[in-house]
Amino acid sequence: MDVSTCVEINMRLHMKKRVKVCAALIMDNGKVLITRRAPSERQAGGWEFPGGKMKEGETPEECVIREIKEELSIDIIVKSFCTNVKHDYEEFHLDMDVYYCEIKEGIIDMSVHDQYAWVSVIDLLSFELLPADIKVANIIMKPYVKKNKKNGG
Questions:
Q1: Which among 30, 46, 64, 71 is placed 20 to 30 Å from 21, CA to CA?
Q2: Average per-residue pLDDT in the chain?
Q3: In 87-108, which positions are buried (b, 16+ CB within 10 angstroms) versus exposed (e)?
Q4: Is there a contact between 119 and 43 (Cβ–Cβ < 8 Å)?
Q5: How far is CA 64 from CA 67, 77, 85, 127, 128, in A?
Q6: What are phi and psi of 116, to 5 degrees?
Q7: pLDDT tens profile 119-140
Q8: In this structure, what are the phi and psi dihedrals at residue 25, rounded to the nearest 5 degrees?
Q9: Torsional sign, CA 37, 43, 45, 48
C-alpha cells in the first residue's frame, strides 16, 4: 500500500458515524413541546425536540411522523420545514432536519422519555437542552426576541 492509501484508511477509521435524524417542533397556542430523555436512554436527562433516526428509503417527513408515533403515541401533521442543524457529539456527527408540526390526534404516552413540557418559545433555554437542540432553540427564538425588544421587553 502507498502512503495515500494508508492515510485514507486511517481517516475512515477515525471518522465519526454520521446520524441523520428528523425532529418535530410541535406547536400549540404559542408553546412548543419538548421531551426529556429517560434515565435508561443515551444522553439521559437532556431535553430535546422529539424525533429520531431516519430509515433507509424514508423521507424526512415520513421519519418525523413515524418517530413521533413511536415515541409519543400521537399522530402529527408536518406543516413546514424549519431548519437543519449539524452537531459533532463525541461519538457521532448529527445531521438534523427540523419540521414545524401540529398534533392531528392522540394523547401523549411516552416511550423513550420520562417527562414532557409545553414551553413558551422564549423560555426554551431555561431547560437543559441537548447541544443540537440548543441550536434549534436559538433559531426559532429569533423572531420572538426581536418582537419582545420592539415591545419594550
A1: 30
A2: 88
A3: beeeeeebbbbbbbbebeeeeb
A4: no
A5: 5, 10, 15, 23, 22
A6: -140, 160
A7: 999 999 999 999 999 999 999 9
A8: -100, 95
A9: negative
